[in-house]
Design brief:
Blueprint: H1 6-9, H2 13-22, H3 29-40, E1 44-47, H4 54-65, E2 75-78, H5 82-96, E3 103-106, H6 113-120, E4 125-128, H7 130-138, E5 149-153, H8 155-160, H9 164-171, E6 179-184, H10 189-198, E7 204-207, E8 218-224, H11 230-241, E9 246-250, H12 253-265, E10 270-273, H13 279-290, E11 296-300, E12 314-317, H14 324-331, E13 341-347, H15 352-362, E14 367-368, H16 374-395, H17 398-404, H18 409-416, H19 419-435, H20 444-456
Parallel strand pairs: 1-6, 1-7, 2-4, 2-5, 3-4, 5-6, 8-13, 8-14, 9-11, 9-12, 10-11, 12-13
Helix pairs in contact: 3-4, 4-5, 7-9, 10-20, 14-15, 18-19
Length: about 500
């Protein structure tokens, strides 16, 4: 039998047994950095890619701190998708099986029965999507009074899917004396804003990338594709990322006209600015995107001079810039006024030489991303729609749901039974997603309100009952024998 590393050998024997069952003898880099800090207490922001071992990084300290004699939720892990909820829950169950830790995945799109049963049994760890978690909180089936640790897994993805209103409301149910940890593949400004809302001022940053110990405002990525695939790749990026606003750069006015027409024909809200347009037309396009009435603006570098859009989310280089310094000018259009920004480049074989040169000159390393597949795009759209549906359902009082929702179920069933009816439902979904943009930004007022709430204790008046356990909750109860994380 392989010997466990010093870090793992310091854990309780039950967890060591679980690690041997899993074949884990040496901690992965993120585990070696994060586990000691989580065991000490205090809040963390951890930059860790998917597949880096981050579930073990937060899962091991969580299962170690669980009081098995307390049939209450003591750790809350929020994730963006139901697939990730199942995956994380499976890992937590494996890590805590010799300790008898009960872990429950909670997410939308499935029946409530098994989730309610798991909550009634007293799940120690809840892993779920914010929308369904909020459903159970609002109905009094889930109580967070005994939560010691909160984890946001893939925090950047959660914000991009529009969970922010749900996360903000969940905050009001959380006890003040908890530890909170954000795990994110990238640490843009929007993740830092989230941290200011949920975390204390003494938050520590953990990064596996040299030079990335603090959040960056602009993320840089590129996609490899052939010159003939650039238009289709651009569409896939826009469908998958779904930016609230984007500026697409082309090198020629002919490309600006072509790309704008290509996007418009595929239903995107796009316009252009180039030297071919009158000053009045250019000013109109600028005014529309500044006012939030236009999502995508296509431009040449010359025509884009002087553009100042503080809320611009995304910059896309349809073609590599002709000079290295132009890339800095392009990407500098986003990430302004303390906002998060992201820059994508479409790189073909003809562009690769210039693209490597601009990275060297600008002393910036740009990561490659794989072009999203059709299935990945459709799954992403389903996730966004699920989030919005859950938010809409919670906005309808229980007494009105029968008249406003349930009575329409036969109509939906009849549409589903007809091929043309399915297309009509799909059209309704597409129009809804187009007209209802996700809320992903954290205002300064919200941050100040969260800080004030942390100082005075959370507002408990919004809770709707004590859940299935009755009145025995709260933070009292002696003799738990739990190793509770210390706040540094």
């Amino acid at each position: 039998m392989s010997e466990l590393s010093e870090l793992f050998a310091d854990l309780p024997e039950e967890i060591q047994s679980s690690l041997r069952d899993l074949g884990w003898t040496e901690p992965m880099p993120v585990q070696a950095k994060a586990i000691p800090l989580m065991r000490e207490g205090g809040d963390l922001i951890v930059q860790a890619m998917t597949g880096s071992g981050k579930t073990g990084a937060f899962g091991i300290p969580i299962v170690e701190a669980i009081d098995r004699d307390l049939a209450a939720t003591q750790a809350l892990i929020m994730v963006p998708t139901r697939e990730l909820a199942n995956q994380v829950a499976k890992d937590i169950i494996a890590l805590g099986k010799h300790l008898g830790v009960r872990c429950l995945p909670i997410y939308g799109g499935v029946g409530y029965g098994p989730q309610i049963e798991g909550l009634e049994e007293g799940a120690h760890v809840v892993v779920g999507t914010p929308g369904r978690i909020l459903d159970h909180l609002g109905a009094g089936r889930l109580n967070l009074d005994d939560v010691q640790v909160v984890v946001f897994d893939e925090a950047d993805e959660m914000l991009s899917l529009g969970f922010w209103p749900d996360m903000r409301e969940i905050h009001s149910y959380l006890p003040a004396d908890r530890c909170t940890h954000l795990f994110s593949a990238t640490i843009p400004e929007k993740v830092r804003s989230l941290s200011r809302f949920f975390l204390r001022e003494d938050v520590q940053f953990v990064s596996l990338s040299e030079g990335q110990m603090a959040p960056q405002q602009i993320e840089h990525f590129f996609y490899m594709c052939t010159a003939q695939e650039k238009e289709a790749t651009l569409v896939r990026i826009l469908e998958y990322e779904d930016p609230e606003s984007a500026l697409v750069f082309c090198n020629t006015r002919a490309d600006v006209r072509y790309v704008t027409g290509f996007l418009q024909k595929r239903g995107f809200d796009a316009d252009q600015i180039s030297g071919d347009l009158t000053q009045a037309a250019r000013e109109l396009a600028m005014a529309r995107i500044k006012a939030g009435e236009l999502r995508i603006l296509v431009a040449t570098d010359v025509a884009a001079r002087g553009i100042d859009i503080s809320d611009l989310v995304c910059v896309i280089s349809f073609a590599a810039p002709e000079a290295p310094e132009i890339y800095i000018h392009r990407t500098g259009r986003t990430g302004r006024a303390g906002k998060a920004g992201i820059a994508f480049s479409l790189v073909s074989g003809l562009d690769i030489g210039n693209f490597r040169h601009l990275q060297h000159v600008n002393k910036i390393k740009i990561a490659e991303r794989k072009i999203p597949t059709e299935n990945q795009i459709l799954e992403r759209i389903r996730e966004r729609l699920q989030v919005k549906v859950e938010q809409e359902m919670r906005a309808i009082p229980d007494g009105e749901r029968r008249d406003r929702v349930d009575r329409l179920v036969p109509v939906v069933e009849s549409l589903i039974g007809d091929p043309e009816g399915k297309r009509e439902l799909a059209a309704i979904c597409a129009a809804y997603l187009r007209d209802h943009r996700p809320e992903t930004t954290v205002s300064e007022e919200e941050v100040r309100a969260a800080a004030s709430s942390a100082e005075s204790g959370p507002p408990r008046g919004r809770q709707h009952g004590r859940g299935p356990r009755g009145g025995g909750g709260g933070r009292g109860g002696g003799g738990r024998g739990r190793r509770r994380p210390r706040r540094s």
